[in-house]
Amino acid sequence: MAKTRRRLSVLILLACLAFALFPRMVLGEAADGWDAWYEDEEAADVEHEDDSWYEDEYVEYEDDSWYEDESAYEESSYPIMGVDVSEWNGEVDWEYAVEGGVGFAILRCGVSHGPDKTCYIDESFVRNALECERLGIPYGVYFFSGAESEWDAYNEAWTVVSLLQDEGLYPTLPVFIDLELESLANYESVPTLMAISEAFCTTVAEAGYQPGVYASLSWWDYLLTDPCFDQWSRWVAQYNDWCDYQGSYQFWQCSYAGELPGFSTYVDLNYWYV
Q1: Selecting from 3.20.20.80, 3.40.980.10, 3.40.190.10, 3.40.50.720, what CATH number does the domain 78-273 have?
Q2: What is the DSSP letter of 77?
Q3: Closest CA to 26 of 35, 36, 17
Q4: What span, in angstroms and rounded, lies between the C-alpha atoms of 109 and 142?
Q5: pLDDT per position as a tens digit, 143-155
Q6: Where are the domains of the chain?
Q7: pTM
Q8: Interval 57-115: pLDDT, tens
Q9: What are the angstrom distances between the C-alpha of 139 and each of 69, 108, 176, 234, 252?
Q10: Angle at CA 206, nearest 5°, toward 205 and 209?
């Protein structure tokens, strides 16, 4: 009985050694399949280790058309940071401002107010414009409008055109009419706002300058909605981390409290989408 048990133990041990050392001798084709599976798994591990599967996935993502379209959109709408200034900002050190990241400027050239809508020239305008031209800073201008009629707007536009021509100034960005008169902030004034904008922008365009309209987001959303405004550059004012205007626009005034090199006061911050 003891001999039989010893023989059985030896046979079991030999069988285990045979399976471990000579799988093909024992399993035949099944062993080939086992090795093939192992090789495939090993290859998969190697492929995973060198990130080839990740690279393939990445290349596929890069080649996606929607991704390319998104990149093109972002590139074509890349915002340039700039400022708009008036005499209230004092004497600007424009060289220092450029070093601080200012990429463009919109300069107030004048304002009209009073019962007779008298037009006044901004005291800092000519100096600011000459500095921008000297340093190659793209700049536009704006006129703070007090117009309440088409005739008032013509007068404002001719004031701006005459100033630019007399001083020999050539703004490369639009000439804006700044619409924010409280007496016109109502639905009944919509036809008047359209007439004012048409008079100002047409006069500016005929003189060879690019016209534009500045207004707050609420005005653009509720008052300045006529398709006629599509023909002029839009400058939207909304002090926020993003602009909520759903239409097309080229300029966004995002803050009135910027602190930048070259300015001794807070300054309005803007973005220009080129």
Answers
A1: 3.20.20.80
A2: T
A3: 17
A4: 6
A5: 999 999 999 999 9
A6: 23-76, 78-273
A7: 0.73
A8: 333 333 333 333 333 333 346 899 999 999 999 999 999 999 999 999 999 999 999 89
A9: 30, 11, 11, 15, 15
A10: 40
